[in-house]
Amino acid sequence: MFQVILCLMAFAANSIFCRRALMEGQIDPESFTVIRLFSGGLFLLLLIRFRNPQAAIRGSWKGGLSLFLYAYLFSIAYVQLGAGMGALILFGAVQITMFMFSWAQGERFQKKVVIGMLVTTGGLLTLLLPSANSPPLSSAVLMTISGVAWGVYSLLGKAAVNPLTETAGNFARCLPFLLLLAPVKFFGSGLHMSPTGAMYALASGVLASGCGYALWYSTVRHISSQQAATLQLSVPIIASLAGVLILNEPISLHLLLISGIVLGGVALGSVRKPKKYDFL
Fold this sequence. Notes:
- By secondary structure, the protein is an all-alpha fold.
- The chain has one domain.
- The protein is built from 12 helices and no strands.
- The chain has helices at 2-23, 29-51, 61-77, 83-104, 111-128, 137-156, 163-174, 181-186, 195-220, 225-231, 235-247, 253-270.
- Helix 1 (2-23) packs across helix 4 (83-104), helix 5 (111-128) packs antiparallel against helix 12 and helix 7 crosses helix 9 (195-220).
C-alpha cells in the first residue's frame, strides 16, 4: 500500500512541478519535456548500471511513443490548466481508457461498474462544456489525449518482467521523438528557459517521472486494470490540494461539483459486494 501511495504522490508532483514552471513562464513546454524525459532516462540508466552493469535495457517502441505523447501534450496543456483541473481531466481519461481496454479484452463488469464509468465520463464531458468556468477547450482536449497515452503506457506495464529496465528502455526509446520538437521551436518562438524552470523540469524527470514510473510499473503488474485506473483517480484530489497550498490556485464550486461527480462514479464502480456469510 505504501508503494501505491508513493506512486500517486509522484503523479501529483508532476502536475505541480509542470504547472509551477509553466504558469510563471519560466520555461517553454518543449524544453520542459526534453529535460524531463532526458533526465529521467539518464537517471534510470545510471541507476541500472550501478546496480547491475550487465542488465539488458528492455522497453518497447509502443511504450516510448506513448510516454512521449503523454509528457509533451501534458506540458502544453498545463500552460493554461490549473493543477487540479488538469489532473482531473488527465486521470479521468486514463480511467476510461483502461476500462475500455479491459472490456475489449473480454473482461465483464458488474452493472454498478458500468454505471460508475458512465457517471465518470458524463462528469468529464460536463466539465468540457462551454461555460464561464470551463477550461480552455484546446488545452482540455490535449490533456485528454495525454491521458489516453498514459492509460496505454500503464497497460503496457502489466506485462513488464523487470520494471526498472522496462521503464529505462521506454525512456530511451522516447528520446528520438524529441527531435520532432526541434521544428516547433525553430519556426516558433524559440527556446525559453530560466534556471528555476530547468530545476522544476529536472525534479519532474528524476523524482516524479524516473523513480515514480519505475515504481508504478512494479505496482501495476500486480493489480487489475480496473484497480489501476481507479487508484489513479485519487491523484486529482492530491493535486488540487497541493495546487491550493503551493500554487495559490483557487478552487471553484464548478470544479468541486464535477470532482464530486467523477469521484462518485469511481466510488460506485469500486465498491465491492459484501460477502455473504452462512452462520447456520
